[in-house]
Amino acid sequence: MANEFSLDGKVAVVTGAARGIGLEIACRLAQSGAQVVFTDVEPELGPEAAASVQGGSYRNLDVTVQSQWEDTIQEIRDQHGRLDILVNNAGISPAGNIEQSDLALWRRVQTINVESVFLGCRTALPLMRQSGEGGSIINLSSIQALRPAAELAAYSASKAAVRALTKSVALHAARDRIRCNSVHPGGVHTRMLDDFAALTGDAEAALLKLNAANPLGRVGLPLDIANGVLYLASDLSAWVTGLELVIDGGSTL
């Protein structure tokens, strides 16, 4: 039986791919046969990450700069002639309730978490459309888009915006068989989660508490999220668009 998750012949771009969830996603897509462009602003970590898998390459990309997006997509056009998968993963999650968050922090979070997704979708769509074979855009949102957290005011708002933008893009791009879905991770064990746990003063105890609180008994792993992205990138989800794929071990139930 053929591998239904095969991405052979497909070209993918993953933002924020030098570490954490983005790295796991990029590696998972590459392991499934895609040619994957790892993008990030980590010139020391990024090339090493891309070199770790067959079919990986690295490009430095500040996702908040339109001209860098345009240069990246043009380079993909020149080298591969097509783009099938775009994963808008790059983001930040600084803590702060509405009174603790100043305007500078608010704008920084919206720029990195929302404007980057806008720029990525807008810039990539013409090349994705060119092949006539459709494509898949996967935007990383969060469970905070569905259940906002008081201590993550700017982040919760930004991920809600990603959720809504995803649905708008899904409706717009459907005519070209380009699908657009959002993934909503719960607590995943990455550097971001470690930083958040450290704010409690006892990071180890905080992580144990998070594990115990999850219905499935543990926080997520980057691979849990990458497997969900692989499904949305593959032809198995050919009739799936505008979906909110929640991957959280049941924590929002």
UniProtKB/TrEMBL annotation:
SMART domains: PKS_KR. It comes from the Bacteria. GO terms for molecular function: oxidoreductase activity, acting on the CH-OH group of donors, NAD or NADP as acceptor. Residues 10-189 form the Ketoreductase domain. Belongs to the short-chain dehydrogenases/reductases (SDR) family. PANTHER family: SHORT-CHAIN DEHYDROGENASES/REDUCTASES FAMILY MEMBER. This is Ketoreductase domain-containing protein. It comes from Sphingopyxis bauzanensis.
